Amino acid sequence: MTQNFQKILQAAPSPFLLLDRELRVVWANEAYLQTTGREAEKLFGRKLMEEFPSDPDSEAGKMLRGSFERVLRDAVTDHLPVIPYPIAGADGEVKERYWSATHTPILSSDGEIEFILQHTQDITEFYDHSASVASPVGLQADMVRRAREVANQNLEQDAAINFFRLIFEQAPNFMVTLIGPDHVFRTVNEAYYQMVGHRDLIGKPLREAIPEIEGQGFIQLLDDVYRTGKPVRQTGAEAFVQRTPDGPQERIFVDFIFQPLSNSHGETVGIVVQGHDVTAQKLAEVSLREAEERFRTMAHVMPVHVWTALPDGGLDWMSDQVYSYTGATPGSLEGDAWANVVHPDDRAAAAEVWSRALQNESRYDTEFRIRRADGVYRWHLVRAAPIRSADGTLLRWVGTNSDIHDQKAMSQQLADLNTTLEERVEKRNRELEELHTRLAQSQRVEAIGNLAGGIAHDFNNLLQVMTGSLTMAAREMPAESPARSRIDAAMRAVERGASLSSQLLAFSRRQPLQPRPLDLRELLSDIDDMLRSALGEGVSFDIRAPETLWPAFVDAASTQNALLNLALNARDALEERGALRITMANREFSAQDLAGEPEMSPGKYVEIKVMDNGPGIPPETLEKVFDPFFTTKPVGKGTGLGLSTVYGFARQSGGRVTIDSVLGAGTTVSLLLPRAQDAAEPLRWHDPDSVKGGTETVLLVEDDAEVRDATSAMLNDLGYRVRSAQDPAAALSLAQAEPDFDLVISDVVMPGKMSSRELADALHAERPDLPFLFISGYSQDAIVRDGRVDAGVNLLSKPFSHDALALRVREALDAGGTAASTKPDNRTRRILLCEDDALIRLDIADILESLGTNVTETGTGHEALQMLKTGEFDALLIDVGLPDMSGEDVAAQVRDSLPDIPIIFATGQSDVPAAQKLGKCAIVHKPFGDRDLARALAKVGVLPEVKTLASV
C-alpha cells in the first residue's frame, strides 16, 4: 500500500478494513477502530473470525462467510445490504448490531486476488427505529428491513447453490459444462478429473485442455451437437487419456450423453456432458469372455466329453468331442435330446439319477453306455457339478463323460477271474510248467550252442583250409587225371562238414542272418523243382497262398533250407506215398494270443504250414522233436539236427515253429515269420558263369596262417594283388605305411587288443568309402545283433568256395564304400512338431526327446511349411486340427515339395484319409503315450523298430 492510499482511507468517515486471502486483518482505518472499539496493535495480524467470532451455522455466520467465498471464487465485489452481527464492546459486553457491508477484491499484478477491502456501515439505529414509516427515519428503517429480507433470500439462494454445487462436485458420474463452439470448460466435477487426470481445465477449449482426445471422434460429435442442437448418446465408447504429463495413454470405456444448452432464443450456447466411467465393467466383460473362451478351448481338446446344462437340467452346450464321438449333428443333442445316444436299457436309470441331482442341487454321478458313431455302445462315467453364484444361487451345471469301457471290461474279467480262480491257478501252473520245460530246453540249447559255436570257429577254419587247398589243387591238374575224382570226393566231404557246421550254428541261434523283405511265394517258386524232385513221384504236392500275402522279413537262404528240411521230414514220414501241402497266410497276434510265449512280440506275421497226411507222431516223441541230435531214424541215417535247425532259425528270425500231430491223420508244422514293413525285394541269385576276378589290391587280415595262405592263393588265382596281416594292429600299421589298396578282407574273430570292428572304424576314419568284407565261421556278435548281421556289413561265412569268394569280392569292389561302412547311422533324428495347444505340444515334445530325437516346435500350419522350406527334418508330426489350416492340407503341400519325408498325424478322429493317400504316413490317436509314438516312428522308418512294445 502506498502512503497516499492510507491517508485517503484514514480520513474517510466510514469504517474500512483490509484482509488478506486467509481473512487475516492487514490494516483498518480510525473510523473502523472507533466503531468496533478495537486497538490497531491488538487487531492487526489476527483473523477476522477470531476477533469477531460467530457460529458458522448462524444467520450472521453464513452471510459473512458466503460473501467472502463469492469474492474469492468469482473475483467480483459482493454486497451485504443488511447483516446482523453482534460484537463485544470495549467493556466486553456483546450487543446485537446490524451492518451494511461491501467486500471488494484487490488484485495483484498477475491477476490473482491478493486482498479484500471491507467497507462497513453500522445501521443498527435505522433498523431498530420505531418511528412511523411516514417519517424519514421510519422510511429508512423500512428500507433496511426490506434489504435484510433480500439478504436473507440471497442467503437462501446461496445455500441452495452451495447444496447443488456439493451434489455436482461429489456426484459419482462425471459432469462437465462446455461453452461456445470451441467447447470451453466452464464447470468440471471431481469424477471427471479422476477420469482424465487432475489438470488445468476451466476456461480452456477442449482441444487445448485435453490434446490427446484429438482424432478419437469425440470433438466431431460435440461439433455436431453444437451445430444441430440434437443430443448424442453412446454406451461403451472407447477412449485413450493421458492422466499424468509424462505417463502413458490409458484405455478407458464410458457411457455418456452430450446434451445441448440453449438460450432464451433457442440458440445452442453450450453442451452439458454427463456420463459414467465403465472401464472396470468392460474389462470384467472382456476377462469373462476370455475365461469362457479358454474353457471352451480346453473343453474341445480334452480327451473326455464336456457339457454344460441350465439350472433346470436342459443341456445348452457340448464340446466337439461329443459330436465327433457320437457322429451327431452339432447342436442336435441339446435340451433333453442327449438321451437319444444313450443305450435304451440305461436311459431310465440315468434320467432318474439326473432328476434327483437337479432336485437336490447335488453332484451328478452315474454310469451308462453312449452310442459311438459306428453304432457301438461304450460305457462312460458321467459326472456333473453345480456351479453357484456368490450368494449360493444355482447358475448352471458343468459335466464330463469319461470312457471307462475298457476298465469295465477289465473289472468283468477280474470278476470272472475270481469266480474261476482255482481253475485259472491250475491252468497257470500248467503254463508255468510248460514254460519251465521250454526254458530248460532253451538253456540246454544255449549250452550246446556255446559249445558248438566255439567248435564251429576252429572247424570252419579247418574246412576253409581244405576248401582252398583242394580248389587250387584241382585247378593245377588236368580234368582227366585219376586224382581229380579223389579231389572231388574230398570237396563233397568238405561241403557235408560245412553243412553240419551250419546246422550247429543254426539250432544254437548263432547263424549270422541277413534278413530283408521277401515274397515267400517267390521264394518257394524258386525251389519248386528241387522240392518236387526230392519228394518223388509218389507224393502229391501243392502250394497255396493268397495274392495279398504280406512280405516277410527273413534271410532267404535260411528260409529255403528250413522249408526243404520240413519237406524232407514229411517225405520220410510218408515213406514216399501220400500228399504234402504248403499253405501261406497273413496272421496278426495280440499279447493275449501270445500268452506263454515270452520270446514273441504282438504284431503281424506271415504263417507257413507244411501239412502231410502221414501216420502222425506219437505223443512221447512229439515233445522231443525239436531237441538237438534227437532222431527216430536208424544210426547213420540222420543227425537229429533238422527240426532243431528250423527251430533255431525261427526263433532267431523273431518268429516261432510249432508242430501238431494226430496218429493216423498226419502232421502239421506251422512256421511264423515276422512281416516286413517295406515292399518285397527281388531274389538275388548269381549265375556262376558270371563270376570274375580283377586286378585290384586286397589287404587280407587273418590270424590263422593256413587259412590266410589258402585265401591268399584263391585271391591271387582270381588276379588280385594281396597284402597279408596276421592281426588288426599289424593291418593298421601296414595300411598306414602302404595305403594304396582297394579292399580289406578281415576275419571277425582274432586275438589281440584291437578287434576287426575297430580296425574297420579306424580305416574308415581316413577313407570313408573303403570297401570292407568280413569273413567268419562264428561271429560272436562282433558284427551281429540279435542274430542279424548289422546293416551295411558285407559278410562271407566260412567255409567259402572259390566262386563264393570271387563273387563277394567283386560285389564289394564294384559297390565301393556304399555298403562297406560298419558304423550304424546313430545321428539324432530331427522332428518338426506342429501342435496348436501349448500344453499338449509340451507333453509330446517331452516324449519325443525321451525317445532320443531333436524336436523343433510350432503351433500353426503356415509356420510348419516355412520351417520345412528353411530347415532339414527327418519327420513331421502334425495335429490334424490346426487353427489356421487343416493338418491334412499341410501334409499334402509338404508331400509335393518333400516326397520322401515321413509324416505322423496326431488326431482324436477315427481315421485320417490323407494318411492312406499320401503314403509313408502313420497315425497316433489321442490320447497316446510314448509306446504309441515310438511304434509310429518305427513304422515310417524314423526310429528302429522296438519289438518289445506292447499295445496300450
Automatic annotation (TrEMBL):
<protein>
    <recommendedName>
        <fullName>histidine kinase</fullName>
        <ecNumber>2.7.13.3</ecNumber>
    </recommendedName>
</protein>
<dbReference type="InterPro" id="IPR005467">
    <property type="entry name" value="His_kinase_dom"/>
</dbReference>
<feature type="coiled-coil region">
    <location>
        <begin position="418"/>
        <end position="445"/>
    </location>
</feature>
<dbReference type="Pfam" id="PF08447">
    <property type="entry name" value="PAS_3"/>
</dbReference>
<dbReference type="InterPro" id="IPR000700">
    <property type="entry name" value="PAS-assoc_C"/>
</dbReference>
<feature type="domain" description="Response regulatory">
    <location>
        <begin position="697"/>
        <end position="813"/>
    </location>
</feature>
<dbReference type="InterPro" id="IPR003594">
    <property type="entry name" value="HATPase_dom"/>
</dbReference>
<feature type="domain" description="PAS">
    <location>
        <begin position="1"/>
        <end position="75"/>
    </location>
</feature>
<keyword id="KW-0597">Phosphoprotein</keyword>
<dbReference type="InterPro" id="IPR001610">
    <property type="entry name" value="PAC"/>
</dbReference>
<feature type="domain" description="PAC">
    <location>
        <begin position="364"/>
        <end position="416"/>
    </location>
</feature>
<dbReference type="Pfam" id="PF08448">
    <property type="entry name" value="PAS_4"/>
</dbReference>
<feature type="modified residue" description="4-aspartylphosphate">
    <location>
        <position position="879"/>
    </location>
</feature>
<dbReference type="InterPro" id="IPR000014">
    <property type="entry name" value="PAS"/>
</dbReference>
<dbReference type="InterPro" id="IPR003661">
    <property type="entry name" value="HisK_dim/P_dom"/>
</dbReference>
<dbReference type="InterPro" id="IPR036890">
    <property type="entry name" value="HATPase_C_sf"/>
</dbReference>
<dbReference type="InterPro" id="IPR001789">
    <property type="entry name" value="Sig_transdc_resp-reg_receiver"/>
</dbReference>
<dbReference type="InterPro" id="IPR036097">
    <property type="entry name" value="HisK_dim/P_sf"/>
</dbReference>
<dbReference type="InterPro" id="IPR011006">
    <property type="entry name" value="CheY-like_superfamily"/>
</dbReference>
<feature type="modified residue" description="4-aspartylphosphate">
    <location>
        <position position="747"/>
    </location>
</feature>
<dbReference type="InterPro" id="IPR004358">
    <property type="entry name" value="Sig_transdc_His_kin-like_C"/>
</dbReference>
<feature type="domain" description="Histidine kinase">
    <location>
        <begin position="454"/>
        <end position="677"/>
    </location>
</feature>
<keyword id="KW-0175">Coiled coil</keyword>
<dbReference type="InterPro" id="IPR013655">
    <property type="entry name" value="PAS_fold_3"/>
</dbReference>
<dbReference type="InterPro" id="IPR013656">
    <property type="entry name" value="PAS_4"/>
</dbReference>
<feature type="domain" description="PAC">
    <location>
        <begin position="235"/>
        <end position="290"/>
    </location>
</feature>
<feature type="domain" description="Response regulatory">
    <location>
        <begin position="830"/>
        <end position="941"/>
    </location>
</feature>
<dbReference type="GO" id="GO:0000155">
    <property type="term" value="F:phosphorelay sensor kinase activity"/>
</dbReference>
<dbReference type="InterPro" id="IPR035965">
    <property type="entry name" value="PAS-like_dom_sf"/>
</dbReference>
<feature type="domain" description="PAS">
    <location>
        <begin position="291"/>
        <end position="361"/>
    </location>
</feature>
<dbReference type="Pfam" id="PF02518">
    <property type="entry name" value="HATPase_c"/>
</dbReference>
<dbReference type="Pfam" id="PF00072">
    <property type="entry name" value="Response_reg"/>
</dbReference>
